[in-house]
Amino acid sequence: MTDDSPALPPLALYVHVPWCVRKCPYCDFNSHGVGRGAVLPEEEYLAALIADLDADLPLAAGRPLASIFIGGGTPSLMSAAFYSRLFEALAARLPLARDIEITLEANPGTLERGRFAGYRAAGINRLSLGVQSFQDEQLAALGRIHSGADAAAAVDEARRAGFDNLNLDLMHGLPGQTPALALADLEAALALSPEHLSWYQLTLEPNTAFHSHPPPLPEEEVLWDIQDLGHERLEAAGLVRYEISAYARGGRRSRHNLNYWRFGDYLGIGAGAHGKLSRRGGGGAMAIERRWKSRQPDAYLRRSEDPRGFVAGRSLIEEAELPLEFAMNALRLVDGVPLSTWSRCTGREPARLEDRLAAARKKGLLVEDAGRLQATPQGLLFLNELLALISQDRGCQG
User: Fold this and answer.
1) Which CB contacts under 8 angstroms, 24+ apart, belong to 313-321?
2) Cα–Cα distance between 62 and 207 in angstroms, integer?
3) Do 190 and 337 belong to one domain?
4) CATH at 148
5) 139-197: pLDDT as tens digits
6) What is d(CA 82, CA 90) in angstroms, rounded to the nearest whole number?
7) Which residues span the domain enclosing 201?
8) Where is the Radical SAM core domain (predicted)?
9) Which of 221, 241, 259 is the endpoint of a domain?
C-alpha cells in the first residue's frame, strides 16, 4: 500500500541571540542593548536553547537540518566555545546534512573580530557581516558602532580565518544619500569580493526610534535612480540578483533564506525566535503551524522551569491564507517557482488561479509562462499589487 500523503518540506533551524551592544534606531528586531563589556549569561542561555530545542524535536519528524542561521541581536557577542557546545548538542539530537550551511551574523566592530577563527573552527562556514554602509557619517546616523575601516578589517580577518562564503549586509536610501554616495558604498563592498550581498532599502518600521523621529530620507525619484544604478552595477560585477534584495556569485545563494522563500519548514529557538512547521493531518492533509518564543531574554531564561515551556504563541495557517502566505515568499525570488509548487504547498489547483494570473500578466507583473509563477522586473517593484491580485482569487478564498 502506497502512502499518497504529501512529503514534508525541507527543515532548517533559526537560532536567535537577543543581545547587542547598542540598539540601532532603525532596528525592529528583538534586540536588547547591553553596552560594551557586558557579561552575557552564556551558560544559562545555552541550557535554555537546548531545552527549547528538545521541546520542539517532535516537530522535526526525523528530517535532517539543511541549514542553520544564527541571528540577532549580535550573535558574535557569544564565544566560539558557546557555539561549539551548541552544535554538539544539535548533532546529538538531529541529523545534519553532510553539506550543511551554518551562518553566523556578526558585527564588524573591533569588539568581536578576534573570534572569527574560533567561529570557523566551531563549524560555522558562512559569515554575514552587518556593514550597512562604508561611510562613517552614514554609520553614525544609523547608530552603528563601527567605522568603514572596521568593516574592511573584519572582512580581511574573516578571510584569514578561513571563511570563503561571506555575505555583506548593505543598506541604501539612507538619510541624505545620493545615487553617487550609494554607488560609492557598492564599490567599497565590491572591492572586498563578497560571495553574497544583501542590498536593501532602509525603511521606517513601527516601534523604532526612526519611526518616531524620522530622518530626512531621499525623495522617491532618487530612490528609483539608486536602485536602477545599483542593480546594473552589481550584475556587471558578477553578483546575480536572485531575490528582491539578494545577490550572489555562482553557487553561493543563501540556502537558508531560499528555504524560507520556497516555503520550507524551520525550527526557531531562542528569545523571540519564530518557527514554521508542517505536519500531516487527518486524511493526509497538511497542517502548517507558526509558533514564536518568549521575547524578553530574562523571561525566556525563566521559561525552562515553566510548565508552559518556551512557546509564547502559536497559530495554524488557515487554508484560505495559504495562497497569500506562499506567494509572499515565492514571488520574492527572481526566477519564481514552478506553478506545480503552488499546488503542492497550498493544496490549490493552478486552474483556480487562471483569471488572476491572466490579469497579472496583462498588467505586466507576471512573466508570460503558463508553467511558472514568476514576477517580472516590474512585478518585483510592485510586489504588493501583484500579491493583492493573486490573494483575491475567489478560488483561493473559499
Assistant:
1) 314/289, 314/290, 315/289, 315/290, 315/291, 316/287, 316/288, 316/289, 316/290, 317/288, 317/289, 317/290, 319/347, 320/396, 320/397, 320/398
2) 39
3) no
4) 3.20.20.70
5) 999 999 999 999 999 999 999 999 999 999 999 999 999 999 999 999 999 999 999 99
6) 12
7) 11-259
8) 5-239
9) 259
